[in-house]
Each structure stands twice: as C-alpha cells, then as structure tokens.
Specification:
The protein has a single domain, classed as Crotonobetainyl-coa:carnitine coa-transferase, domain 1 (Rossmann fold, 3-Layer(aba) Sandwich), CATH 3.40.50. Helix content is about 35%, strand content about 15%. The protein is built from 18 helices and twelve strands. Strands 4-12-9-8-5-6-7 form a seven-stranded mixed beta sheet, sandwiched between helices.
Length: about 450
C-alpha cells in the first residue's frame, strides 16, 4: 500500500506549496484570512454570540494545492456550498447543521453526531441513559453532555463504534489521508474527457468528488438505489443541484437480480467508481472492489470515501462534523475547540479524493484509493489564524448552476445501451485539457 506521495509529511512540517511554473505564489497570511472571510466560511465559524473566527493556518494553502488540477476552482466555495442554500449559522460547539455537538470528556473533547432517529434509540446502550428520558425525535443533549463528562474519550469512542454511532475524539486520526493500493497496470489518461465515472455515493463528499471529475470532462452517472435514494434529495434543492446538476441520473433496484446485473454491467464499463460503503455492504451486492479493478476491462480507479477508512474492526462511520473533529480540524477562541465551518471534512475529502483520482488516472495503473475524511481533515488542521475585528464576514453567497435531472431520468436510456452492449466501446477521448501526473501537494 502506498500512502500518497508525501503530502501528509509535508503538511505536518508546515511546508508551503511550491506552485508549478506560471502559477502564483501562495497567499500571504493576511490574504488567506481575507479570502476566508469573504467566502462566508468565517460567518460559519465561532460562537453564535461571539465574533467570527479565522481559519486553521494550514487549511487554505492545502486546499489551494488540492485544487490545482481543476481550472478556475476556488476551493473555499466548496466549504460553504451547503450553508449557502440552507442559511446555516455558526453555533460554536453546536454544528451549523445542528446534529453534532462538541462535548467535554474526562480527558479531552468528543464530537457526537446524532442525525438519524435510530441513533437516539442507541443512547441508552451507549451511555446508560434511561430509555424513558430519550425522546424519539430529538437528541437529549443535556443528558448526553452529563453522561460523557466523566468518562474517558477512548472508551466512549470504542463503544460508540460497536453500536454504529458517529463520534470522533479531538485529534485522534493518525493514518494517511489517502491509502493507495496498486492493483495492476493500465495506460495513463492525460485527458478525462470521455471517461466514465459511476458515482454510487450520497450526501456531500462523494458527490462533490464526482462533480469535480465531471468538470474536467468525464461523464458521470449518479446511480441510486430505488429503495434508498440519496438522502440529500430531501434537503435544500440548490445544494443537491450544485453537486449533481451535470450528472446523468440512474435508479436501479438493488434488491432485484436484473437491477444488480445492470449495476455490475455499468461498473464493468466505468473508468472510475466512487462509493462510500463498507466492504461488507459491497459484498452483499456482489461487488468486490479489488477483483473488479484487477479484471481487464473493468474500472481502473476505485475510490472509497468513508469517515475513517474502509478497514477497521469494527468499521466506523463518520459524518462531516465529527470526522473533522477527529482530525483536529477545529477553530479555537481561547476557551477550547469550536466547530470550523459546516461539516468541513465532507468538502475537503471530496476535493482530496478528486485530486487523488486525477493523479491516478494521468499517472497510469489500476488503483484502489481509500480516502479517510478524518485523516484528510488532520492533514489540513492547524492553529487558528486571527481574524482582525474590522474584517467583514458576510454569509455565503447564494448558489447558482444547472438543475439536477429528475431522479432516474436517464435510467431507461442507460439500460437500453447496456442491453445493446453499446458501451463496450468506450467514448473517444476528447480534446480536453492535457493533465500531467501531480505529485501529492505541499511538496517543496
């Protein structure tokens, strides 16, 4: 396994990125802070009753380095794209979205995410709370705060993992952001135009990765389960459109043999597959990432984006806020850690995964890329830069972009193509931008 190309070591040493010829030098600290504030990210960072805060020192230089393969991309816009369509505000130790809290334990800090109703039913088993005192529709945050205060964070984290709860100890992540496993040879692809991406992900990190690959000319198929579509569809439409507006929408029945057959046929004809599932869940669908990538004619790059990596016993789940805390990507105001922007590990991981995908494609070979949201966050964490009191910190600007197609709008056409084996011949590579292998960023 190859843990990237040295990005994490360079970030840990505080090395600034050296841009390629023709690209400008890194921003000064003052410019970094001004960009952070102007983007709307400062508006989302700090206590609700206090002033906005500046960014972690390594965050923006790291994001700028990851954004280099994507012409015209301002990575700070990715950090605020959900809040721009929801009107979220900063909440200090309550996440912008409201489903996560930063809580003090006996020996540190723990982020606890409770976004799902089934999470609430697990609180008595996790913390010994009286089931009668746990409402079915809202987290009992006061009781949770009191219960975790006297316990060690590692014990709470381990028990939560066994139950399938998303929690993260502050700064606990210690693995590389992207673990790359080489699975065989393949010709380089200096252009992404004409390549096929099958996007099986939902919510934010994975769809953001797919959208970025699409911006370089790849054809992206958003594939959803008929019984479990992307949960982001139930949220703000402008946010969903921003992530999926340029993709083709395919809906398949994963509980039906024909639907699984169509899924397998589409994956066989893909160049890149994006997923955010545990290996066991993929095996239940008859999908083995390693075997599919090794097979001649199958996808050349398989990207798995999870909270803490696709391996582990027990496997851990993670969402953008708790994964960011696990990576130490937080802000500080002198009283302790506060959430930094909105579920920041999600867009950062999506950008990191897209960078790694481009690097793998233009460099050649067959690859399994294991992206950990918490480890990406850890690689970008650092001390909080001061935000001068007079600095304007407006909310994020409204989003614009194409509207996503209706759910399943392209299913019939795709199934027809598969039946006719029309996709056996991959589309011709277009005259898109020629890309060069980009060593993992922040290398002097």
């Amino acid at each position: 396994m190859i843990p990237g190309s040295g990005w994490e070591a360079a970030v840990a040493a505080g090395v600034s990125p050296r841009p390629p010829p023709g690209q400008p030098l890194a921003d000064s600290e003052g410019q970094v802070v001004e960009r952070w504030a102007a983007s709307g990210a400062a508006h989302l960072t700090g206590r609700s009753e206090g002033p906005p805060l500046g960014p972690p020192a390594r965050l923006i230089p790291g994001l700028d380095a990851l954004a280099r393969p994507f012409p015209g991309l301002d990575p700070l816009g990715l950090l605020v794209e959900r809040a721009a369509s929801t009107g979220f505000e900063r909440g200090g130790r309550a996440s912008c979205g409201g489903s996560c809290r930063l809580l003090e334990t006996a020996d540190g800090w723990l982020a606890v995410s409770l976004p799902r109703l089934e999470d609430l039913a697990l609180l008595p088993a996790w913390l010994g709370l009286d089931p009668a005192g746990v409402a079915a529709d809202r987290p009992p945050w006061a009781a949770v705060r009191a219960a975790v205060r006297g316990q060690p964070g590692v014990v709470l984290e381990e028990k939560a993992a066994l139950l399938g709860l998303a929690v993260g100890r502050l700064g606990a992540s210690a693995r590389p952001p992207v673990v790359r496993t080489a699975l065989g040879p393949a010709e380089p692809s200096p252009r992404l135009e004409g390549l096929v991406v099958v996007d099986l992900t939902s919510l934010w990190a994975g769809p953001r990765c797919g959208a970025l690959l699409g911006s370089l000319g790849a054809t992206v198929f958003k594939v959803e389960s008929k019984s479990r579509p992307d949960g982001a569809r139930a949220g703000a439409a402008p946010f969903f459109d921003r992530l999926n507006g340029a993709k083709r929408s395919v809906v398949l029945d994963f509980e039906d043999r024909a639907g699984l057959g169509a899924l397998r046929a589409l994956i066989d004809r893909a160049d890149v597959v994006l997923e955010a599932s545990r290996p066991r869940a993929l095996h239940q669908l008859g999908l083995d990432a390693d075997a599919l990538v090794v097979a001649a004619g199958g996808p050349r790059v398989w990207i798995s984006i999870t909270g803490h990596g696709r391996t582990g016993d027990p496997p851990r789940i993670g969402f953008g806020d708790d994964a960011a805390v696990a990576g130490g990507l937080v802000a500080h105001d002198g009283t302790g850690p506060l959430f930094c922007a909105d579920a920041i590990a999600d867009p950062c991981a999506g950008l990191a995964a897209a960078f790694a995908a481009v690097d793998a494609l233009v460099g050649g070979g067959r690859w399994l890329l294991d992206v950990s949201m918490s480890a990406v966050a850890a690689s970008l964490a650092g001390p909080t830069l001061p935000l001068p009191p007079a600095t304007p910190a407006p909310p994020p600007a409204p989003l614009s972009g194409p509207t996503a197609p209706p759910m399943g709008a392209d299913t019939a056409a795709v199934l027809q193509q598969l039946a006719a084996r029309a996709m056996n011949q991959r589309p011709l590579r277009g005259a898109g931008p020629v890309l060069t292998p980009a060593r993992w960023p922040l290398i002097p």
